Amino acid sequence: MTNIQQQHTEKLTPYIEAYHLAADDVHLSGGLPNDEVPKAVQHFQCQLAIIGNSHQRNISSVLFGDTAHYLTRHTPCDVLIVKTMN
């Protein structure tokens, strides 16, 4: 396990424990969300993907759109975008 995977696993652990999730129900993958979310949705045959969006605007998101917007067009299921509290 890489250092980054370990960091993410440590951040996920409180949620896994709080919601009594089985290890088989938790999947951690690395890569760009634009690539990984549609792949995971297809692999797990999801009917709904819930995506957090901080709504931080930068020049790249203004010119090309943000990840959440991209995923609404390229994910093969319904997508619910949730505004994160920053």
Automatic annotation (TrEMBL):
<feature type="domain" description="UspA">
    <location>
        <begin position="23"/>
        <end position="83"/>
    </location>
</feature>
<dbReference type="InterPro" id="IPR006016">
    <property type="entry name" value="UspA"/>
</dbReference>
<protein>
    <recommendedName>
        <fullName>UspA domain-containing protein</fullName>
    </recommendedName>
</protein>
<dbReference type="Pfam" id="PF00582">
    <property type="entry name" value="Usp"/>
</dbReference>
